[in-house]
Task: structure prediction
Amino acid sequence: MKPLIFIDGQAGTTGLMIHERLGERDEIEVLTIPEEKRKDREEKKKYLNKADIVFLCLPDEAARESVSLIENGETRVIDASTAHRTDPGWTYGFPELSPSLREEIAQTKRLANPGCHATGFIAALHPLVSAGILPAESDLVCTSLSGYSGAGKKLIEKYNDPEEDGDFKEGPHHYGLSLSHKHLPEMMKMAGLKKPPLFMPMVGPFYKGMVVSIPLFLPLLGGKVTGETLRDCLADHYGGQQFIRVLPLGDQSDFIEGTFFHPQGCNDTNRLDLFVYAKGDQAVVMSRLDNLGKGASGAAVQNMNIMLGLPEDRGLRV
Result:
C-alpha cells in the first residue's frame, strides 16, 4: 500500500512547491482536501489522521493547532513553520549535520523543517564549532540576502504585479531591524553557539536564491587558523554528502562577469554550496542555496524520503 501524504497549507509558497515535487511520484499518494473544505476544522482533522505523513505549511499558531488535531500515534509530521524548531520533543530536519541526526530523522514522528536563513548559517558554522575551531562564545555578524519569494505573500504579489512600479523593486532591502528575527533561536541552538549573532537579513529583487555570509577575524579564533583550516574543516565534515558541496578555497568559477558572486547559482536544486574566501587575518564563510529548495520544500521532501526509507535524492535535483 502506498504511503498517504497530506499537505496542510498547500496554497502557500512552500506547500505549492512540495506538491509540485511530489506530483509525478508514483510510489506515494497525495491526499487533496476539497478547496471548499480547506478551512473546515473537522474535515481537515480527518485528513490529518488518515495520512502517514503530514506536511504543515502554515503560520506557527495554525501549525500548532493542526498538530493538536492528530489523535493517532502513527501519523508523522514535517512542520515547515517556526513553531517547533527548538522544541526538544521534535527532531531538527538537517540530516547532513551528523549520522546520528539522520538516524533520528528516519525514526521520528515529529520533525521540524529548518528555516532558509538558518540552513545557510548552520551549514557554515556547525562544523567549525563542533571541531573547536570557532569558540561557542564568539561574537558574530551574519548577512543573508534572499530572493523575494521568502518575503511573504503580500510582498511577493507586489514584486510580481506589473502595475507596481515603486522603487522597492530595485532593492535590496534590509529587514528584521528589530534584531530579533524568528530564525535566531534555531541558528544558535543548531550551530552550537552561546550568543546570538548580529543578524542582518535582506531581500533582493530576484525571485529565489540565497547567500548567507559570516565574516571572521582569524586571530580571534586562537591558534593558527587560516582560510585553508576553515575550508578543510567544512570539506571533512560534509564529505560524501550529496546535497552539500564545499568549493575550493577562494573559488570564483561561478562569478558573474568574473567579479560578482552569483546568489542564484543553486536555484531549482536541493544543493547547498559552501565557500571560504580569506586574506591575511580576515575570512568570510558563505553558504548558497535555493531558499525554496534546500531552504524549504526541497529539504522537507528530502526528510520525507529518509522517513519513508526511500533514496534520499528521490524527486530532487543536486
